[in-house]
Amino acid sequence: MARLAAIFLAVIFLFPVLCLSFSADNPTDRRLLVLVDDLAVRSSHSVFFKSLQTRGFDLDFKLADDPKLSLQRYGQYLYDGLIVFSPSIQRFGGSLDQNAVLEFVDAGHDLILAADSSASDLIRGIATECGVDFDEDSAAMVIDHTSYAVSEMEGDHTLITSDDLVQSDVILGDRKIEAPILFRGIGHSVNPANSLVLKVLSASPSAYSANPKSKLSSPPSLTGSAISLVSIVQARNNARILISGSLDLFSNRFLRSGVQKAGSSTKYEKSGNEQFVTEISKWVFHERGHLKAVNVRHHKVGETTEPAMYRINDDLDYSVEIYEWSGTSWKPYVADDVQVQFYMMSPYVLKTLSHDQKGLYSTSFKVPDVYGVFQFKVEYQRLGYTSLSLSKQIPVRPFRHNEYERFITTAYPYYGASFSTMAAFFIFSIVYLYHK
């Protein structure tokens, strides 16, 4: 009885936490776990954390080596997003390890991972599993003797600036980031075999990755625009991942610092870091680019009820409503590239859906003259948006024997030939029998 009572009390106290988990109706009402090497990061990166909190996120700060660390309890995840700001951690505490982080993402949850030149094998391993490879030299940093910040004119030029951003309003917002972004950290490359990884912030063509405290004895492994400073991943289950080679990228100092690019006379009072990390975090945590499809319908033209099956050559209507989460509510999604397939082994019909500017997409077409088990399929994938995969199965039957036309117009010549042959045979018989 004591054990049952303990379980009951645990469920009661855990229930409010579970209610904060990801909801398809309210994707931004979520709880985030923030792992840090030192709780001082909570102060040094407070602007970024305050931005998340003002947008409705509940942050739970813990040391990365906390022995009580856990992502789930009683088979239920306690958090819907994970922020790892502990680049030098060699081993997570509690039940958390590399596999647990990857399983967390596989379950559809989001991840922000920030590294620097002290990145441990654990952090590198998680990044590699996500399709990102940091420079193998543990002491390497991104160096740029052309696009560095003027404030480091006499330094080793590891404080660089970059404005090579991905051109996508859904990922970075529709307001252009004017000021260059400050970066100090380690570079990485994206796995070309992984089509899910996308470079968001790249280094300039003059950049390279090397140890700034030693002379180059061999050509650097990463050079130019091939160096990715910040990359994102959208998994096939729509979980989103952000991987940054710089923890300082999110710091108050970089967010509030003025910036002037070497060789440029333009000096900005504030870098583009704050706008960049705010907008990219909105994308990572599904405040933008999150789609849902509802009210998938199909029926014969002139009817309103969905039939159990169609007959070949029937005319039908297909419709679906698609909405996009704006951060606070669902808004109609408007696009001209949503298509539906009428599919059996291969598409027999492929139609682009028209929309009414209010989220309703629809089209009409004729069922092909082939019977079998078909599917209505919508496979929608667009850069920066969550993918939609809709399918509805429906059988298609041939005409019954009593549904064919009694007399087919195109067969009239054959009808005439048959009757004329019978008439001719009758006349021939009369003439032959009674002719003298």
Automatic annotation (TrEMBL):
The lineage of its organism: Eukaryota, Viridiplantae, Streptophyta, Embryophyta, Tracheophyta. InterPro entries: DDOST_48_kDa_subunit, OST48_MD, OST48_N. GO terms for cellular component: oligosaccharyltransferase complex. The chain crosses the membrane at residues 412-434. It comes from the Eukaryota. GO terms for biological process: protein N-linked glycosylation via asparagine. It comes from Phoenix dactylifera. It holds the Pfam family OST48_MD. Component of the oligosaccharyltransferase (OST) complex. This is Dolichyl-diphosphooligosaccharide--protein glycosyltransferase 48 kDa subunit. It is found in: Endoplasmic reticulum membrane; Membrane. Coiled coil: none annotated. Its main location: endoplasmic reticulum. Residues 298-436 form the OST48 middle domain. Residues 1-19 form the signal peptide. The keyword Transmembrane helix applies. It is a single-pass type I membrane protein. Subunit of the oligosaccharyl transferase (OST) complex that catalyzes the initial transfer of a defined glycan (Glc(3)Man(9)GlcNAc(2) in eukaryotes) from the lipid carrier dolichol-pyrophosphate to an asparagine residue within an Asn-X-Ser/Thr consensus motif in nascent polypeptide chains, the first step in protein N-glycosylation. N-glycosylation occurs cotranslationally and the complex associates with the Sec61 complex at the channel-forming translocon complex that mediates protein translocation across the endoplasmic reticulum (ER). Residues 31-284 form the OST48 N-terminal domain. Keywords: Endoplasmic reticulum, Membrane, Signal, Transmembrane, Transmembrane helix. Pathway: Protein modification; protein glycosylation. Belongs to the DDOST 48 kDa subunit family.
